[in-house]
Amino acid sequence: MKKLLAGVVAGVVVVAGAGWAVGSRLRSPADEAARRAAPAASLVTAAVERRKLVSTVVLSGTVEYGSPLPIALAGAVGGTAEQQRATRAPRKGRIKEGAVLMEVNGRPVFALRGAVPMHRTIAPGTKGEDVEQLQRALRRLGYGAPSTGVFDGATIAAVTGMYAKKGYEAQQPTTTDRQTYDTLRKAVRTAQETLATEKQALDRGRDVLPLKVRLDNARADLKAARAALAGAESRELTPADETRLAAAESAVRAAEERLAEVEQALTAARTRPTSTPTGTPPGTPVPQPTPSEEDTSLLELKVANARADLAAAQDALDRAREEAREARDAKLEELRKAVRTAKEAVVTAEQALRQARQLSPARLKVAHAREDVAAAKELLADFARTYGVSIPPGEVVFLPKLPARVQKVSVKAGRRVEDEVATVTSSTFAVTGSVEAAESELLRPGMEATVEVDAGRTYPAVLTAVGDKAKPPGGEEAPEGSLPVLITPSGSKGLRAGTAVTARVTVGATDEPVLVVPVAAVITSADGKARVRVEYATDRTKDVEVRTGLTADGNVEVTGALKEGDRVVIGDA
């Protein structure tokens, strides 16, 4: 029995094992499709970095020794519109700052150092960078110009000195300008005379003159009333009051004297001694008799009367003072009322005159005459602001660097001056190349740049010119859709003419390290806001709103709820 049971169990085990083996090798079509499907996509991320960001425009160029720079006059030479002809052509050779490059119609063309091209007539009152540049050049040449940035009197004096030192006269107002200035001054005077005539006619009109006389009289009455009030206020008493008070005060003093006199008499009567009896030994006290009532009664009556007289005099003085004060107050109030009445009369007369003038037919003429005076003065002021010594646009040529060397002369004496007049070169190397027109809009002369040779060595440089001014005379034309560029290295050691180089012009840079992400990581939503997807766990992301800044080399500056080291999504893999 045991053997049978063991055999059954063994058979079951064998069958189960065979079933498991077969089941592990057999799959359904769904399982097979799932096994053959591509694995789930994973995220491609990049780290948020903190570093300085520099945006550059890159171009290929060639090192040229003494890169030529064409010179063209910015406008007319002299203050006349007559045909411009070279009376002395430029001479080849070295030229320094302040030298006369050439003459046109007998007028000089000065060479000065500056990056801002001459582009307009610099007249009295002109402001701007070109004027500051001119003032710096004048100071370098020793003419002591200010640094106001305004073509003012001190700058004009310096310019006049520069011209005189070279044997020329600074450009004075032309005959036409002087005639125009004189005409405008006469127009102002004429308008003022007309205004005065119309005002006089208005004031003398029959509908205005009586009211004007009434106003004058009212003003005179007001002046007199104010003077009378001021005089009364400055005096405490009138002459009559002063006389009355003086008499009352005199009566008080007389009563005081009378009282003192009778009081003294009464006292003397009461203390009068009697005769000493005969035979009284010396030294024996003598009895004093008592004065009789008949001796003192009259004096006591006089004292009582004197005291009554003094009280009456004092009362009279007090009444006189009170009456004088009341009289003064009444007089002042009367005078103040007169002033108020006079003011009302003046206001009434002014209103009547004003209404009459407004209704007068001559009023419109006066208004028009005033407008004419204002317009004439404004025209004169506008013209006067630019009237005086000036620098025509063609009489100064600003060159980036001086001294320089005239390499090529493009105009001859006696010929018309139209385009380029000469070509100058510097004693340093320059890199010539070209950029696409769209990139050229980012470039400005004076921007920092670097020049890199094949060996990997770099040289600091400055963008000197973009466009036609960077085009080498006789050189190759820039490709269609591009503009020529001229870059000047700060040093020339190790550079060779004809060497091909790569130049990078810095058009923007952050002042300090900032957070940057690849441009591909920034997504602009339908609401116009920029966001990035930040991976906070494996294949799990969240959107973070950011603000973008400078873009350079495929990276962009961002600010927001990010930190260095965060992973931002740039795609799926």
Automatic annotation (TrEMBL):
UniProt feature, compositional bias: Pro residues: 279-290
UniProtKB keywords: Coiled coil
PANTHER family in alphabetical order: EFFLUX SYSTEM COMPONENT YKNX-RELATED
Region (Disordered): 267-295
Coiled-coil stretches noted in the UniProt entry, renumbered to this chain: 303-359
SUPFAM superfamilies, per database record: PGBD-like (SSF47090)
Domain Peptidoglycan binding-like: start-end pairs: 128-160
Glycoprotein as UniProt keyword: no
Origin species: Nonomuraea composti
Main location: other
Biased composition (Low complexity): 267-278
The protein, known as: Peptidoglycan-binding protein
Gene3D superfamilies cross-referenced by the UniProt entry: 2.40.420.20, Outer membrane efflux proteins (OEP), PGBD-like superfamily/PGBD
Compartment list: Cell envelope
